[in-house]
Design brief:
The protein is 64% helix and 2% strand. The protein has helices at residues 4-17, 31-46, 56-85, 92-117, 122-125, 155-168, 179-206, and strands at residues 138-139, 175-176. The chain is globular and about 55 Å long. The termini are far apart. It has one domain (4-206). The longest helix is centred in the middle third of the chain and has 30 residues, at 56-85. The protein contains seven helices and two strands. 34% of the residues are buried. The chain has a two-stranded antiparallel ribbon with strand order 1-2. By secondary structure, it is mainly α.
Length: 207
């Protein structure tokens, strides 16, 4: 089970945050990237390429980091929407950049959270390790039924799920089956609807 694809995706999002227009950012633009980088570094150093051991503390930190990105991203979107609604001076270019950054961040954050929680986490899903996996949070089409653990999803499967959620605003081929995954789908879909239909559409009207 490889960690580096998730770490690389999170690092990309942290870089993108530096380009978030000030009208959308909550606090200084560098604040969240620096805070998240401080959490990401020990995770990468503990298992830089492959997950060879499970540390409950590091797993909680990783999940808290992803949830923090998701929360701050939602607050950035709310701040931008309020600014637009109250007549704030936001150019069309700034709106489009903000919408892209928020949408990409939403996709990567959801990918990371799905990867961390599904079946008890990446370590539990790996058949090479002794800890048994838990009930699935996501029902992939490759699975015969909700309790079939023969299919082992990879980062690409979770990325595709998060991408289709963000673009279709609803489940497509992968269904949420746990309460926490359903809540994540609701939150991710709401952020995508607002960032694409409200912010991006408003930016197009200004051109």
């Amino acid at each position: 089970m490889r960690r580096w694809p998730i770490s690389a995706a999170v690092a990309l999002v942290l870089v993108l945050q530096l380009f978030l227009p000030r009208q959308a950012a909550i606090g200084p633009a560098w604040l969240m990237p620096v805070a998240q980088a401080l959490l990401l570094v020990p995770l990468v150093l503990s298992d830089p390429v492959r997950l060879r051991r499970e540390d409950p503390v590091f797993r909680r930190v990783s999940l808290a980091s992803a949830l923090g990105v998701l929360l701050v991203n939602g607050l950035d979107l709310a701040h931008l929407v309020i600014g637009i609604a109250t007549g704030g001076k936001v150019s069309a270019r700034e709106m489009i950049v903000a919408a892209v950054v928020i949408e990409v961040t939403n996709i990567v954050a959801n990918t990371t959270i799905f990867w961390e929680i599904d079946r008890g986490g990446p370590f539990a899903r790996n058949p090479e390790h002794p800890r048994p996996s838990e009930h699935p949070d996501l029902l992939f089409p490759q699975m015969a039924n909700v309790h079939d653990a023969s299919f082992l999803p990879c980062v690409t499967d979770y990325l595709f799920t998060a991408f289709t959620l963000a673009t279709a605003f609803s489940p497509t081929d992968t269904m949420p089956v746990s309460p926490r995954s359903k809540m994540l789908f609701m939150l991710g879909g709401t952020v995508s609807v607002l960032s694409l239909t409200l912010v991006a559409a408003r930016a197009v009207n200004l051109f």
